[in-house]
Amino acid sequence: MIRFYFHPTPNPAKIALFLEEAGLEFEAIPVDTKKGEQYSDAYLKINPNGKVPAIVDTDGVGGKETRVFDSSAILLYLAEKTGKFLGKDEDRGELLSWLFFIASGVGPFSGQAVHFQHAAPQPNDYAINRYRREIERHYEVVNTHLIGRDHMVGDDLTIADISLWGWIDRAPVVMKGESIPLESYPHLARWFDFINSRPAVERARKILASHTFKSEMDDVAKRALFPSNFPR
C-alpha cells in the first residue's frame, strides 16, 4: 500500500491524480504546512527536505518499505512500479525531457511567480516581472508543442501530462490579473480542458479537499512556509 503525504498544493495534486488514474490502494495523510508539520521529526524521516508530497510504499522492491520524495521522483517511481503512464519505449527520451522541463521550469517559476505576486511582504517589481515573463515563456513553449496534440508525449496519458496538470490547474493564481489566464495559449487551454475532464481528476480533487487545513497566514504560517525570511 502507498502512504501518501499531502497538502492541497500543485505538487501533491499530481500524485493524487496518478494514484486515482492507476487505481492504486493508498492512504492519504495530510501534512499541514502552515502549522509546520513538514518539519516534525517523524516527517523529516520520510522527506529530509521538509516538503510535500512524499510517499511510503509499504511493498517496495523486494517487499522492503520504501520512501520516495519530490513529485517527479514519485511519478517516475510509481509509473515504473505499475508499468502505467510511461508511454512507449521509443518515446522515453521525449517523456523524460518534458517531465524534467516541468520539474525545473514550469514548477519552480510558477511557484516564484505566485510567491512574489501573492505572498511577498513588499512588492518587488523586478521579481514579479522576471518570474511572470519566464512562466509566460514556458507556457508558450508548451503551447507550441501541443499544436495538433492531445497529450504531451505520444497518444496516451503519461506522467508528463499528470505533472503538467498539477501546475496548469493553478494558472489563475500564477497569472494574477488575467481574467482568462490561458487565453493567449489556446493549445495549452485545449489540452488542460481535455485532461481536466477525466473522471480521475474529480476524485483527485476530493482527496485534496478531504482535510481542513489551516488557512490563516499568521506568523507561525509565515515561518513555516518561508523559513529563510526569518533569523535562525
UniProtKB/TrEMBL annotation:
Keywords of the record: Transferase
SUPFAM superfamilies: GST C-terminal domain-like (SSF47616), Thioredoxin-like (SSF52833)
Molecular function via GO: transferase activity
Domain GST N-terminal: 1-86
Domain annotation GST C-terminal: ranges: 88-226
Pfam families, alphabetized: GST_C_2, GST_N
Record-linked PANTHER family: DISULFIDE-BOND OXIDOREDUCTASE YFCG, GLUTATHIONE S-TRANSFERASE-RELATED
Name this protein carries in UniProt: Glutathione S-transferase
Source organism per UniProt: Thalassospira mesophila
